[in-house]
Amino acid sequence: MQNQANPIEIMANELARLPGIGKKSAQRLAYYIVSMPKEDVKRLADSIWEGRSNIKLCEICGNYSSENLCEICSDERRNKNIICVVKEPRDLTAVERVHDYRGLYHVLHGVLSPMDNIGPNDLNIRSLLMRLADGDVQEVIVATNPDIEGEATASYLARLIKPMGIKVTRIAYGVPIGSDLEYADEVTLAKALEGRQEI
Amino acid sequence: MQNQANPIEIMANELARLPGIGKKSAQRLAYYIVSMPKEDVKRLADSIWEGRSNIKLCEICGNYSSENLCEICSDERRNKNIICVVKEPRDLTAVERVHDYRGLYHVLHGVLSPMDNIGPNDLNIRSLLMRLADGDVQEVIVATNPDIEGEATASYLARLIKPMGIKVTRIAYGVPIGSDLEYADEVTLAKALEGRQEI
Question: Cα(B69)–Cα(B75) distance, rounded to whole angstroms?
Fold first, then answer.
């Protein structure tokens, strides 16, 4: 009964619904938040709600955006001849963090997954094909995850896009930079050998 | 520039200010929150803000409460002859979780710490002495953490309270030295209460 009425417990229960936050750390966070200056908590709560309510999907690429077009699609300096296809907006952010890639993106919002009943129509694929029909794009890099579903999605996209005369590439597999060969799993190592490059 | 304007980044930055949430997990959480149903996010943000803004300190014991008196102080069934003194409200919650203790509490909101310039006047001690002056209380259990500051605070309280003819006890060293009350498991905490010694 006490737990029902207590605002701290209510807050802790809401926090515990977030991924990676267990019951105990949710409670710890709730107690911390209650001890924070009110204006800081206001800013935190507002950033959460406003972040969620102000976000829409970019009409071109499907990235999260506060405007109708995301910052990348509306940036005239980006290379419009190349599109990098990712599963989720946070993957886009990861690629963007590299600062090497200057092309555009397309966010699928998922990958093909027969097990979860996710087919091509559940993904943001139709709008990708419409973008490609314009004729500007010369290459599509498929940067879905190197797992079964990511691979299946990449193959599916390649089958659709190649007949349009557009080059379809896949990000390279290999041992991660700075890692130890000894600890690489067999599949990764096999892929790294297979994809070896002349130096 | 992108990071300044982006609502997701703003949310991630606010989340990263919380203890135990690094920059990367804050970003992960922010992306997760953006993908949550709006009504769930509303409830989360409201619980955070309302939890903080509706909470005050119990006028008797200093515990967090949504009313002037906390649920424990206003519960007639609690044993008014015994007061358990804790450093923080979350320690009270930890003791309460044991379900063994049926007395009252007093929350100091800190411990003596000359290093941090925290003296007796910075703690909720005066109101404890006023409660004891009523004459109902026969025992004060000091359940501050088993560390240097917790010990010093316990000794200080014992010196103040014993002359009033009130028994002062310390929770037993069932709790591992140097640890945090909040993380003690129920059995350890129950043993510690059971084995309390007069100081």
Answer: 10
Q: Which helix (H) or strand (E) holds A92?
A: helix A89-96
Q: Token match 């004459």: residue?
A: B135
Per the CB < 8 Å rule, is A14 touching B44? yes
Q: What is the pLDDT of residues B97-133, one digit of tens each?
A: 878 889 999 999 999 998 899 999 999 999 999 999 9
What the block records as the tokens of B186 is 């129920």
Chain A, chain B: beta-carbon pairs less than 8 Å apart: 148
Q: Coil, helix or strand for B64?
A: strand
Residue whose C-alpha is closest to residue A106's, from A85, A81, A76, A80: A85
Q: What is the pTM of this model?
A: 0.72
CA distance A125 to A115: 19
Say if the Cβ atoms of A38 and B54 lie within 8 Å.
no
Residue at A54: amino acid letter: N
CB contact under 8 A, B41 and A48: yes
